[in-house]
Amino acid sequence: MQLNNVFRKCFKRQDITVSPETSAADVTGWDSLTHMILINDIERHFSIKFKLMEIMKFNNVGDMLACIKKKVNT
Amino acid sequence: MNINIRQATEQDKDFIMTAIIEAEKSGADITSYGAIFSLSGDAVKTLVSNILDEGIEEQEMYIPNFLVAEVDGENAAAVSAWIEGESGMTSNIIKANMLAYFLNADILEGAVAKLGLMNEVNISREMGALQLECIYTAEKFRGMGLSGQLINEHIKRKKAEWLSVDKAQIILLKNNSSALMCYEKVGFAIVAEKKCEDEAILKVLPCDTKILMERKLNE
Predict the structure, then answer these.
(1) Most buried of the four, A45, B121, B151, B162, by CB within 10 Å?
(2) Rounded to an integer, what distance in angstroms lies between the CA atom of residue B51 and that of residue B61?
(3) Which residues does A contribute to its contact with B (CB < 8 Å)?
(4) Complex confidence, ipTM
């Protein structure tokens, strides 16, 4: 999944593999700092821009994926 | 002298912006947002204004979270309060979402090293605890105990609304001795501190240590 590559680059770790159920509590180092960078990296990688209320509804990677797919397919 | 405490409204936006920005400065010449993201004073004002306009709850920059103290009809002091993690998301992540949205990629990337330093002094807020932030009194009204009155009123209102809330927390810089004394007067005590050992933190914050103060609400 492309998102795994984005996570690995953002967290500077190759051992990260995310699933739709993955949330911040599951990934060591996923704090507010890395969260900002992650959102930015995802936007750049997929050439999209999230709306603020979309970002606020991201409870897990699955929520991110659904939003990314919707934007990429538009 | 007539003191009136009330919830802030949209009409108070300018005063609330002053409260947020001046409280953020913690005695320095610039805000931590300005120092971390290399933003001018005007850019910080624009950022704070945009965040307030979004109306995002569960963090300090939400107008209805503020109580305002008026003295003889003039806005004199303000304090923001919320219950941490009410919807399951921490206020830090909520603010990170807003900063990621409003600040462009270049600004965020330029701030990575400084944000790393800020992480060294970051104290986690307890989920379910009442958080008090942006505690501000306009200079000519200082010494009247207005911040303490606002804090006590927030506690009274939140306890009436949230029967389970049993703790209030304030996070501040260790060198803010006047604020520390003010909070001790209304029953807060220091319970934790975090220090950044890297001197570079002093280019971002006026002090290298943050402290967490708490007050138990069911005693």
Answers:
(1) B151
(2) 7
(3) 24, 31-33, 35-37, 39-40, 43-44, 50-52, 55-56, 58-59
(4) 0.84
